[in-house]
Amino acid sequence: MPDLNRLVAGLRCRDVLEDLSEFLDGGLPPERVAAIQAHLAECDTCARFGGSVGEIVAALRAGTPTTTWSDARVGGLLARVRARVAETP
After folding, report:
1. Which is higher by pLDDT, 50 or 36?
2. How far is CA 68 from CA 55, 64, 72, in A?
3. How many domains does the chain have?
4. Do 35 and 15 form a contact (C-beta atoms < 8 A)?
5. In whole angstroms, what is the distance from residue 13 CA to residue 40 CA?
6. Percentages (nearest 5) of helix, strand, coil residues in the chain
7. Which structural domain, as residue segments, surrounds residue 47?
8. For residues 80 and 85, what is the distance between their CA atoms, to the nearest angstrom?
9. Distance (Å, whole) CA 78 – CA 37
10. Rama region for 28: left / alpha / beta (φ>0; ψ in -120 to 50; rest)
């Protein structure tokens, strides 16, 4: 499991994951968006995870199923998200 306390570009992975939903929704102030984008540019783990979540959110918003995601892959992603959330103090 990745270290969520890892500091990259001034932000911890944990902080990026906590703000990911608002980031994808466009609900963060510009300076926070810039900080998260800088983190994602340097952190492969968060970039991969954020990209995966972003694809799912975009497909849900469009109201169309995505053909690139199998049920097992979506289920696995959701299980990992739930596990990480449960670990958060």
Report:
1. 36
2. 10, 12, 12
3. 1
4. no
5. 9
6. 70, 5, 25
7. 7-87
8. 9
9. 23
10. beta
- Whole-angstrom distance, CA of residue 87 vs CA of residue 81: 10
CA distance 10 to 13: 10
User: What burial class does residue 22 get, using C-beta atoms within 10 Å of its C-beta: 0-12 exposed, 13-18 middle, 19+ buried?
Assistant: middle
The structure tokens 């102030």 sit at: 29
Is residue 73 in a domain? yes
Residue 1 lies in a domain: no
Amino acid letter, 84: R
DSSP state for residue 9 in the 8-state scheme: T
71 lies in some domain:
yes
pLDDT tens sequence across 38-50:
998 999 888 888 8
Tell me, yes or no, whether 80 lies in a domain.
yes
